Amino acid sequence: MTPLITPAELAAVLGEVTVLDVRWRLAGPPGAESYAEGHIPGAVFCDLDADLAAPPGAAGRHPLPETEAFQAAMRRLGVSGSRPVVVYDDADSTAAARAWWTLRYFGHEDVRVLDGGYRAWTAEGRETSTERTSPPPGDFTARPGGMPALTAEEAGELARRGILLDARAAERYRGEVEPVDPVAGHIPGAVSAPTTENVGADGRFLPRERLRERFAALGVAPGTPVGAYCGSGVTAAHEVLALTLAGIPAALYVGSWSEWISSPDRPVAVG
């Protein structure tokens, strides 16, 4: 089953799936405001910072939530293990991919991302709502380990022995600018692979073959172990989703750059 769903496909199953609105921007405005202004009917707002991550610290700006905390958050949002989940954001699936990956990591087997997000939904003239949805509690049971994840040490090793993709903008990878974290640069040996190149101008993912060509050009070959990281494990989840669409299994370094630089013993590369 593809991890993507189109607006038409979602419209046909509304009421039969749990829909999570995961709109979020690193620099704001808060996604809850966008949700209040209009959302897909029946969707529940999922706060990326509070529901899909633990508090920031040495493990990064968006570390994995504790199992019990994530389970409680998903149950509050109406998520059940036996009911499919669809997640969406504004357009390019960056935030939605973090929800997809985290749900899959904690064992939910049927999660799909709305390709093109809310923008694609409204572009087709589909119904929207400003009514806040209060779902009945779900029964989701979180079991970690459903998706491969990397520690800092494993990410550093993968950059040397396999392919570690850096999903941030190229100028952040090169260390020319760093608008968020206190240290600029990248993990030595990592390959620059901005997630913006996984989607078209409409925010929808490129076709499978074009994604395969993109990753092949970055050195991803059959049998090569692959991982991805970014600033805090959000856009890197988008990279993992794109790799999945291309038929390439990949691990996520959730702590990403914000965790990597928390230790002065870890090397930093620029250029």
Automatic annotation (TrEMBL):
Residues 13-130, 158-269 form the Rhodanese domain. It comes from the Bacteria. Residues 124-145 are annotated as: Disordered. InterPro entries: Rhodanese-like_dom, Rhodanese-like_dom_sf, TST/MPST-like. GO terms for molecular function: thiosulfate-cyanide sulfurtransferase activity. Pfam families: Rhodanese. SUPFAM superfamilies: Rhodanese/Cell cycle control phosphatase. Keywords: Pyruvate, Repeat, Transferase. PANTHER family: SULFURTRANSFERASE, THIOSULFATE SULFERTANSFERASE. This is Thiosulfate/3-mercaptopyruvate sulfurtransferase. The lineage of its organism: Bacteria, Bacillati, Actinomycetota, Actinomycetes, Streptosporangiales.
